[in-house]
Amino acid sequence: MHVSMKWLKxxxxxxxxxxxxxxxxxxxxxAVESVRAVGEGLxxxxxxxxxxxxxxxxxxxLSYCSVDVGGDExxxxxxxxxxxxxxxCVPVACVGATLPGDFTIKKTKLRGLVSEGMMCSSPELxxxxxxxxxxxxxxxxxVGMAFAEYLGQADTVVELEVTPNRPxxxxxxxxxxxxxxxxxxxxxxxxxxxEESGVPVHDAVSVEIADPDLCSRYTARLIRGVxxxxxxxxxxxxxTAAGARPVNNIVDITNLVMFELGQPLHAFxxxxxxxxxxxxxxxxxxxxxxxxxxxxxxxxRVLDPNMLVIADDSGAIALAGVMGGENTEVSDTTVxxxxxxxxxxxxxxxxxxxxxxxxxxxxxxxERGVDAEGCVRAADRAAxxxxxxxxxxxxxxxxxxxxxxxxxxxxxxxxxRMNAVLGTGIPAGEAAGILTAxxxxxxxxxxxxxxxxxxxxxxxxxxxxDLIEEVVRVWGxxxxxVTLPGGRGRVGRLTSRQRWMRRIDGAxxxxxxxxxxxxxxxxxxxxxxxxxxxxxxxxxVELVNPMSEEQAVMRISLLPGLLRSVSYNQxxxxxxxxxxxxxxxxxxSEGRKLPREHTAVGGVMAGMWSRPGWTGDxxxxxxxxGKGVIEALVDExxxxxxxxxxxxxxxxxxxxxxxxxxxxxVAGWLGEVHPSVxxxxxxxxxxxxxxxxxxxxxxxxxxxxxxxxxxRYPAVTLDVALLVDEKVSAERVEHAMRxxxxxxxxxxxLFDVYRGKGVAEGRKSLAWALSYRAxxxxxxxxxxxxxxxxxxxxxxxxxxAELRS
Length: 805
Fold this sequence. Notes:
The protein is about 25% helix and about 30% strand.
């Protein structure tokens, strides 16, 4: 929201400096994004008069001009614009001037002729407007005067960051009300009483709302006999300061009233509307499937039934709350204006504007909620200005269809409760004064109790605590005394889940991974890119008001964000990436009010653990490195049973993908990312990834571990090589060994896998180191040998193995 200080001071007596006002606004929750002096950056730009205009001898599209800027000699300037003649006054940027955009004017040669400055268009001066030609000034503009001084723009524009719950602050009147409350001043709002004459509007216009759930109120006024033309200076200046581009007097008035009162308006050329029984018949309805409308930007839009349109008997003539139609646009030949002032449902407007990529000042206000009670006031204000500026006459009456009236809320606020929550001693009278200054109706109904009427322009005030917040932010958060929370005998501590999450976090770091954090909002196409199917009946969680099309759904997995992090690093020359993330993933299904959400632990590993040094180690990270990280995590959590089971998962490499099971429950997956998935995220394979359900990790974790005494006697270690079929996993062999080894088998370690010469095709050799140990003595060979031979017999029988000689 751009706030002109000159305009603001007409609505409220501000006696603070801009810096002081910015500080007060920041302290009351209205963040200030920037402060800009209008006319800033226009030093060296003056009013000039074109003395002569001659064709350039070597360029058909250029002219060579002599321009008087109030100096001793006129300037010679080469210009490409065509919308001016000798005798016109224009803004001239002299040599040395720096225009907005950090563009410095220099003396130069253009096609052989010296140019000593530049005659400027409106956008080149940072004023918006038509870029197709020069900004031609009135003939009485004083030659040589500084252009900023000529415009009278000794103004400062403060840009506010208005939160979505404060639609009232998207208007000058709303900001003035806020400033009045925090400064103790009185704010005024412009009031217009239109002078009406001629045939009543009800005899010329009819309005029907077919879908009142999407349009709670629609009002229309008729202004006849207007003359379309440029806006007067005061109007163009005000619209420009608010951040819009002056177009013509009618459009600029609708914009002015929107910025002033917060109510978007739309002007139709009344002569273009289809008649029914002699009246312009306006219908507010849903669009038909496949219905088409060419909007003001010249684009043909294909509509659907989720979109609300304004229509006549010929079809759709505007997208409600978003953009008007080309066929009913106000043009230079327009004589009669049908003025729309309505209240459209926020969600519908948001979905329409974003699906069509048409986000405007009007749609932004409708998305956040427009005060239905202000529709008639805005229409009256705009109609009166049109009659004043464009010379029209206002038809008596207002067509007002209001099927869903806005009802002011009523709340009660307990003064004792307010002070208990805040830790303050604010008197009831002072609290009542603050709420009254904010435009709320306040009535004491007993000692220490206020009944508050909430106006319809404050939809964010729904509970007593909201009123308390309003009081303290205006009274001054900085004045709230600093105290420690009460509660004798209470000791703060982490919950069991928080303690386990910290241990998981520490285990990931100890395993060599670095923590990252990616967005929960992702591109809808990520689901297809990672090829990860949703559960039966599940769907993506779509956002109603996404920040962009690339962040329109909630993530179903941590993998897309992590792969983008890998790609980002690799494309910047960082090949070794070891990242993990702990975050929420989401899904939903038809009929659910809220989406499912659970915490996941994910990781990605690419490149190597470290670049090879004098050791010459250049081992690229693979499936087993990822498995090692998970084993380190499992060792920290100590579940009773841990298993990595081969699985065919579409987003992972075949033969290098697995499920992770804890105590028989599937806790997640592990593997090397499929090359096509890596390519979809512009990442270079191989990439190892895993994702585990934090809920399963915590549910199977054991807080108390079994203590094993440090061995006092040496172990006897025997090596053995077994030939097994390719389909027999090392895990299965190890399980058979531990089962057959009895109490003397202390450890089992696989140290080699061999395929090749001497081993039949379809077979592999697994080499194991088996350690035997007794807790109370040193074992002899006679004790170990029988146990070892018995183990080998049982294992060979269980897995179909053969001893390799």
